[in-house]
Amino acid sequence: MSFFERFFLNIPLPFSVWVYELSKLFLFKDIRTPGFDQAVQIVKSKGVKGDYLEFGVYKGNSLIKFYKLFQKYGLEDIRIFAFDAFKGLPVSEGGVFNKGEFHYPKDLFLRRMKKAGVDFKKILIVEGFFNTSLTEDVKKKHALSKAAVIHVDCDLYESTVDVLRFCENLVQEGTVLILDDYLSFQTVDIPENYGEEKAFKEWSLYPRFEELYEIGVSKAFVCKTLK
Questions:
Q1: 182, 196 in Cβ contact below 8 A?
Q2: DSSP-based three-state secondary structure for 218
Q3: Distance (Å) of CA 144 to CA 33, 119, 135
Q4: How many Cα atoms sit within 13 Å of 168 on the Cβ side?
């Protein structure tokens, strides 16, 4: 854990919220922010009803950003689902991602959310590796029927396959799909044979999506039709 993170986690509320916002504005800018903003604007302008699902939350930076964007655009009714095992990646792939990488304990994740000003009543956590945690019972338990935004940040091919299979009957016209590490395998031979890109192109709903933006290694798509 970095010095700044230890410092941040020990700042009392509400000062920690201000420190978090200032650090993201001046010290730790996220190049994905304009894309995230665009995704939420599309959901609002098209009147897309549904939930926000994030698969692989790590320290929660993107989840916090979407939480605040939903507030900014008056979409506070959107529920936020956080799917993660909080144990790091389950396997390695392509010499790019290693087993156990991105391990961040659940208690620190929750503490970080609180310090950043996130209302826990808006967050539903589904814990576990995706090959066992993503079940139809989860959908029934939480009355999860439609997704407005699906944010896939699980890096690996197998994990992404599990996520997309789970989301297949949640997608609707206007659903925004963000694949956070779509281009992360560009340094290996035949990068399209790895990770999120491979899983997405094999998905039955792949032809229904149109590219929305590309920022860094991330790509986003919007579902144009289910027909």
A1: yes
A2: strand
A3: 26, 20, 11
A4: 17
pTM here is 0.97
- How far apart are alpha carbons 120 and 39 in whole angstroms? 23
Q: Where exactly are the structural domains of the chain?
A: 1-30, 31-223
H or E element at residue 183: none
Q: What is the dihedral of CA 30, 218, 155, 54, to 10 degrees?
A: 70
Alpha-carbon span 102 to 154, nearest angstrom: 10
Taking CA 23 as the corner, what is the angle to CA 22 and CA 27, rounded to the nearest 5 degrees? 125
**C-alpha dist (Å) from residue 217 to 8, 184, 214, 220:** 28, 6, 7, 10
Read off the tokens for 151.
């944010």
pLDDT digit of tens for each residue in the chain (227 aa)?
Answer: 888 899 999 999 999 999 999 999 999 999 999 999 999 999 999 999 999 999 999 999 999 999 999 999 999 999 999 999 999 999 999 999 999 999 999 999 999 999 999 998 889 999 999 999 999 999 999 999 999 999 999 999 999 999 999 999 999 999 999 999 999 999 999 999 999 999 999 999 999 999 999 999 999 999 998 87
Burial class (CB in 10 A: 0-12, 13-18, 19+), 112: buried
31-223: what fold?
Rossmann fold (3.40.50)
In the chain, what is the greatest distance between 2 CA atoms, to the nearest angstrom?
Answer: 52
